[in-house]
């Protein structure tokens, strides 16, 4: 039952993640329903999915990526077919996820079962091979949404997503300056850089959080645990209603967070600063959504990709830590589009 609930939430979040013009409608929209589910904290990572084989002569695993539609994607092969994939860690999940399309259908997955997402059926498959130049993963499982030509395609340019396949097998280093992902086998990673190490805390739905100091205005500091999500399309997501110290900044405007079927009303505004240890970022755009007093952090209290890419980031889930090194864009001013 927990596995089915997790798959349902993963797929709903994925749909909401792909909003037009870099807008996300996930935040706040799911809180009421999500609060009906049991909040699941996972201190144990569990076994990594499948196996892997390193192919490079020097033992290093380097995967180049590019930015497309305000997200980063990388090339892979799925059972020998070329695909564009995303990396997601808002909720660690063992399955690969594929977005139904004529291209995905042409891969010819061997369907081994089905699951239901809301009122929509999706297929499951096993025995999948995920390949890159330097590494190949065997015996992967997947969920494949079913293609419907009558619906708009929010996943244009992307065929699927990877999550625990990377994060459970490896320490994952994302170098935004060089636009590469490096996968380092567990037990082989040592850190000698000048970045700062922060503890990751287990959060709901197999997520991880880290602690930050938020200043909305007037130098009043609020310490929060922020969910870490490479899929978040705004720098920060903050809740209105759960913590009385979090209020809308003076420049906040009501706006549509997302477009079309999955849009929702929220607010965009600029907070004074966010600080991780001695790293401080000023004038940070944030998306605000109204939530219930007892809402958990999932989808509304979060660090998104535009903030994370101000650092080169190392995720070490096996030791519950994240390492941040300021990237070349650390001091660049933030930019955000507003739908009004």
Tell me what the structure shows.
The chain has helices spanning 2-17, 31-34, 102-105, 164-167, 305-308, and strands at residues 51-54, 61-64, 66-68, 71-78, 81-87, 96-98, 111-117, 120-131, 135-145, 160-162, 170-175, 180-185, 196-199, 201-202, 208-215, 221-228, 236-240, 253-256, 265-276, 279-290, 302-303, 311-316, 321-326. The chain is mostly beta strands and 340 residues long. It folds into two domains: 2-185, Cathepsin D, subunit A, domain 1; 196-326, Cathepsin D, subunit A, domain 1, CATH 2.40.70. Strand 19 and strand 20 (279-290) form a beta hairpin. The N and C termini lie far apart (40 Å). Mean pLDDT is 85; it is low at 15-43.
Tally of separate helices: 5
| Major sheet strand order | 4-5-10-6-9-8
CATH homology superfamily of the largest domain? Acid Proteases
Please indicate the percent range of residues in DSSP E strands (runs of 2 or more).
35-45%
- Specify the overall morphology: globular
Task: Indicate how many domains the architecture comprises.
Answer: 2
CATH class value of the largest domain? Mainly Beta
Write the layout of secondary structure elements.
Layout: H1 2-17, H2 31-34, E1 51-54, E2 61-64, E3 66-68, E4 71-78, E5 81-87, E6 96-98, H3 102-105, E7 111-117, E8 120-131, E9 135-145, E10 160-162, H4 164-167, E11 170-175, E12 180-185, E13 196-199, E14 201-202, E15 208-215, E16 221-228, E17 236-240, E18 253-256, E19 265-276, E20 279-290, E21 302-303, H5 305-308, E22 311-316, E23 321-326
Parallel strand pairs: 5-10, 6-9, 16-21, 17-20
Antiparallel strand pairs: 1-9, 2-12, 3-4, 4-5, 4-8, 6-10, 7-8, 8-9, 11-12, 11-22, 13-23, 14-15, 15-16, 15-19, 17-21, 18-19, 19-20, 22-23
